[in-house]
Design brief:
With about 230 residues, the protein is mostly helical. The protein has eleven helices and no strands.
């Protein structure tokens, strides 16, 4: 086995041990935490989950960042957690907490995918002509745009970036800057939907802006395909 392969296996082992240790640590400190969160997720009970997490006081900040990071690392949608952050912390603090969780979780997922699965992904790419264009599209600009689209699945953008030759530095910059607009929209929308009576006018403006933005993106993509 080559030294590079040995190093890759060592990194993989360390990543798995750290991830398992973190999950076990949370379970030991809070035995019912994961089962309670899972129950609220299945019931789609945003209000109940928000009240449960808020009951941890200042610890709720760390728990929310952890939940968003964990969801990104395993490829689970984070929309429920982002909505909850707006409810628990308010609009601006909720955006900050959500943004931190998204950035941390996406970076972990990117490194895990690249370390654990890149070799297999590259083999698949080499056998399919269309996938050979992954590197051409995986630039700071395109990844940033992908991250900035509200409600876009993080795991898809992460997988494409992990299969490309995009550097860790470039991915971090694209993730750090690009994810902020999406988080603002998602937390803002979740917050105002929860408090719809108090913010119905602002919510309407946001929905109109979102529809307009998606319409412009669709039109540009349509014209690009025609040309």
């Amino acid at each position: 086995m080559r030294q590079e392969e040995k190093n890759n296996w060592l990194v993989r082992g360390i990543c798995l041990i750290l991830a398992a240790g973190l999950l076990v640590g949370v379970h030991v400190l809070l035995p019912h935490f994961f089962s309670t969160i899972w129950h609220y997720m299945l019931q789609k009970d945003i209000e109940g989950m928000a009240a449960y997490i808020a009951s941890f006081g200042y610890g709720a900040i760390g728990l929310c960042i952890f939940l968003i990071a964990l969801a990104n690392a395993v490829g689970v949608p984070t929309i429920q957690f982002l909505s909850i952050n707006g409810v628990i912390f308010g609009l601006v603090p909720g955006i900050i907490v959500s943004w931190l969780g998204e950035v941390v979780g996406i970076e972990i997922a990117f490194r895990l995918m690249r370390t654990l699965f890149r070799d297999k992904a590259q083999m698949i790419i080499s056998k399919h002509a269309k996938l050979n264009h992954v590197n051409a599209y995986s630039t700071i600009r395109t990844v940033m745009i992908g991250r900035a689209i509200p409600y876009a699945p993080n795991v898809v953008v992460t997988a494409i970036a992990a299969m490309s030759k995009l550097s860790y530095r470039d991915h971090f910059i694209a993730n750090l800057i690009g994810k902020l607009p999406a988080v603002i929209v998602e937390v803002w929308l979740g917050h105002d939907l929860f408090h719809v009576q108090a913010h119905s006018g602002r919510l309407t403006v946001l929905v109109v802006l979102l529809i307009g933005a998606y319409g412009i993106l669709w039109y540009k993509q349509h014209m690009r395909r025609k040309s």
